[in-house]
Structures are given as structure tokens and as C-alpha cells.
Structure of FAD synthase:
Amino acid sequence: MKVLIAGNFDVIHPGHIYFLTEASKLGEVTVVVARDETIKKFKGRAPIFNENERKLILENLKMIKKVILGDQKDFFTPVLLEKPDIIFLGPDQYSSWIEERINKSGLGTKIMRLNNRLPYSSSELKRRFLKVYPIDSTKET
Amino acid sequence: MKVLIAGNFDVIHPGHIYFLTEASKLGEVTVVVARDETIKKFKGRAPIFNENERKLILENLKMIKKVILGDQKDFFTPVLLEKPDIIFLGPDQYSSWIEERINKSGLGTKIMRLNNRLPYSSSELKRRFLKVYPIDSTKET
């Protein structure tokens, strides 16, 4: 089974490890890494690690078979290229537009979802960064 | 060949990937992860990820065979337990006390060092965090 997942994967945390492990139980995992420009557009800021750095780190994780960069123009392009059996979504990832595109494409890809909330989130990470690097630490840089 | 390396490994970055890849070219890599209390003592602050989280992430990296937590009382204990052929040090890691202890122990472990400066450092990481989470972002948490 070919499993496709997608995400920012900016600073690998235990929530990612859990999500990737669950994905790998379904089959061989291909990860689509969000482009820097896409993250800037959606978050209003650059990622901490750029797309090539995020790709490099993911390529070195045991449960991942293949890592590709996303398509800036059409998010569905990697699905058309990879033709996965399963798209595995995280608890907060939106699916209705993907379902529509799969139906149109005739690919037969199944959408599955990790329903458990991840034991870790980006906002938890941010809370920890700010605890470790408090306001006055900017003076040192 | 059994290769031992040690470090904090708090937030995996491309410098770690490079260091771990170089270590794995020498043999099977065992990583000693610094304890939270040790980091607090040396850095004056807690790590972003606790010791079990750092261990979990490392255990999922392809180039690592085994991950153990450090010893809070005597940093040399993991060397005595693991009996590595090589201890592989990063460019900033201190070695003279390790050499002394190896000589005393009669282990015959060889010390090797990555001489290239890592293409990434903790201070670079800090600079990026502060850029991404600027001062006024503390209001949101």
C-alpha cells in the first residue's frame, strides 16, 4: 500500500513521530512537504527551517520511504504524480476538496484520518520556545 | 565498529543530520542523550523537548542504531557500559577528560572528531526562532 501524507513538518516534534508511525502502519509512506511560499501565505511568516532543510530531516526518518516538495500552484499535483492507495490526514487537516479532486481524477485513492488528537501541537511548541527564549533574550542576538 | 556520540539533540536541525550521517559512516551509532537536569545545569534553562521526547525522535532516525539516556552522576558511565570502538566528537565537544578516563579504563576506545564546522548551530536556531516568534507574540500565549 502506498500512503501519502502532507504537512509543514517545521521542527520535528513527538506529534509528528506519532503521526508518521501511524501512517507507516498502513503502508509505504511518501511525504509531501509544504513549500516555503505556501507556509508564508497561510501562516503569514516563514518557517523556521526552509523546505530543503525540512525535506532533509524527513528523509532521515525511519518510517518514511520518500519525500517530495509540494506544488505551489496546485496542491493536488503530488497526488496525481504519486497515485497513492491512501491519503492519510491528521486530525486538523481539511479533506472535502481532496475528496472532490479524487472523485474527478478517477484515481480510487482512499482517504483515511488519524482521529486521535496529536499528543503535541505547534502552539505547544511555540509556548515552549518562548519559555526557553524569553523576551530579553533578543538582546543577545 | 561501534560508534558512540553524545549531545543534547534538542530540536533536530540539519547540523545534527550531518553529524549523525558522518558518525554512521564509521560504524553502528549509539547516541547518549543529555539528561534534562544536565542541560539545566550547563545552559541555565530547560531544553525545549524533554529527555524522553529527544530520545524518541532520535530513535526514529535512520542512521542511529541505539539511543540511551546519559548518566547524571558520571558522564563516562555510558562509555563503560557500551564499550565503543570509537567516540565521535563534534567540533565543539571537549575531549581531554574523556581521553584520561579511557586511558584509565583500559578500554582502547579511539577518539575521533568531526573537524568541519557544522553547517548549522544552536545560536542560528535561536536567531530563527526569534525571527519567527517575535517579541509581541508572547501576548498570544
User: Anything to note?
Assistant: The CA atoms of residues 69 and 130 of chain B lie 29 Å apart. Helices of chain B lie at 14-26, 36-43, 51-59, 77-82, 96-105, 122-132. The domain at 2-140 of chain B is CATH 3.40.50.620 (Rossmann fold). Strands of chain B lie at 2-7, 28-33, 66-69, 86-89, 110-113.
